[in-house]
Structures are given as structure tokens and as C-alpha cells.
Amino acid sequence: MRGGEGAPDESGGPAELQGVPLPAAQRAYLGYLLRRVFARFTAEAVKDDRSARDFVVLDVLADQDGYSQQELAERLGINRTIMVRLIDRLEEAGHVRRVRNPADRRSYVLRLTDAGRAARESMRDTVSGRDARITAVLTPDERRRLAELLSGLLPEPEGPAVRSLEHLVAQAHYRLRRMGDALLADVGLRMRHFGPLDAIDRLGPCPQQRLAHHLAITEPAAAEVVDELVRAGLVVRGRDPRDRRRYALELTDLGRRRVADVRRAAERLQEQVTEMLGPETAAELRALLLKLLPGSV
Asked: How many alpha carbons fall within 13 Å on the CB side of residue 267?
């Protein structure tokens, strides 16, 4: 399953809407809040100059290369067509290489070159400015504390000379997403499916537009995730009982079983994060992340 909440909007921008209320059922989860803050940094990056978007791509590949273009587009919330052009340009500049996927010789994955690593380092001033804009709502002490708390979510906590809050948010988000995905591996789902399945279960039968509004994502992104869930046999499009002229979304029997699976995984991931940080520290991190999401409550 490739799509999901947070999939790229056809307009080329991130799928998540900024500055709007977030689903109450998900605001309690640190993994979800981290993803939304990560999406905010990404949204700001794609509004900056071309080098800022390049940095986002290079930074992700520096952390873990071997992504396909489609996977990278999905992770960053960048339109897939735009991602193809972006990678073409980075490859022409010598910053990225396309190589055969060792697990599937018919496909390609991306590798960061030494020149790409050097270019990434040269772009850090732009990142520092973005950090300052997004964290302007925090006091200097709160920014330092946020860096400490995010470092505590990483396998090897960063030293005091952290590169940026954007970097720490991204790394913490990636780690929690990998942990959550591992909890769902046996049912063929990923943590990004939690939001859409949970929402359709709570709201259904509901029109697609209402789902997008509830999840605070764009309508093209909602259409993509619904198409995926329909193909997987988890959701059906039926007639809206309140308006027979339009379709409404409902879970299938399999979808209802899977929504229970993703809820258990979300709860277990939250428990793991709380075990890593401690209950009071986890609550402190949640409060700081919410401050970075204006209008989210």
C-alpha cells in the first residue's frame, strides 16, 4: 500500500493543511504530532527557494538512502511528477545517483553522492532561518528543551551541537514511523493508515470531502488514500444516506478488523514512546509540539 494520509497533493504541495484544527482522536499521539510538525517544516521548505527543497531531499537521503522516487515523494509530501524533475536535476548536478534496487533489479533506488553531502552542508543557513521562523513561538529555553526531548527519541541522542530542530524533528518522526510500521507489518498496513481508517470508522458513512476536512488534509490527498483503501478491500463507496446524489465512505468487514489493528498499534507506539521518555516528559514534549502547530486545537 503506497498512499495514505500525508500522501502528496496533486498541486505539488504537502498534503497536510496548516493552521487548522487537527482530529481530536489523534492529537494525543506523539507520533502523529511529530508527523504534523515535520509536515510544517516541509511545507515551509517547499515555499523557500529551490535550494531549500533540494536540502530536504538531500537530508532525507543522508539519513537513509535507498528510497525509490515514489517512496521519497510520499515521505516528503511532494507531487511525484515534481519529484521526478527534482531528482533529474540533482542527478545532473552530481548530488544523487539512481542505482538498481538490489531487492528488485527491475526498479531503481536513490543514493546520495559525496558531492550531494557537501551540497547539503552548504545549505544549512537556509535551514537555520526556517528553524527560527517556525520556532518563533517558543522561548529560547523551550527551544533548547525541545531539542533535548527530541534527542531522547533517537537511538543515539545527539550531543549539544545539534544541527537543527528541523533535523531532530525529521529523525524523531522517521524513527517513530518505523516503530509503528513494524507493529503493523503482519497485517500489511502502516501507521499512516491509522488516521483515515479511524476517521471513516467514526464518521462513516461520510463523503470524501468531510474525511479530508476531518483529517486536515487536501481533497486530492483524501482521494488518493480512499482509492488505496478501496483497492485493499478495506473501504467501500456507497450512496450517502443523507444525500443520494453523492457517494459516502464506509468500512468493510475487513476494514473494521483492520481499524482495530491500527488502533492497537497506535496505542502500543504511544506506550513505547512514554516508556522511552517517561510520562511527564512525554506530556512536556506533546505540549511543545502543539505550540508549533498554530490553530491545531
From this structure: 7
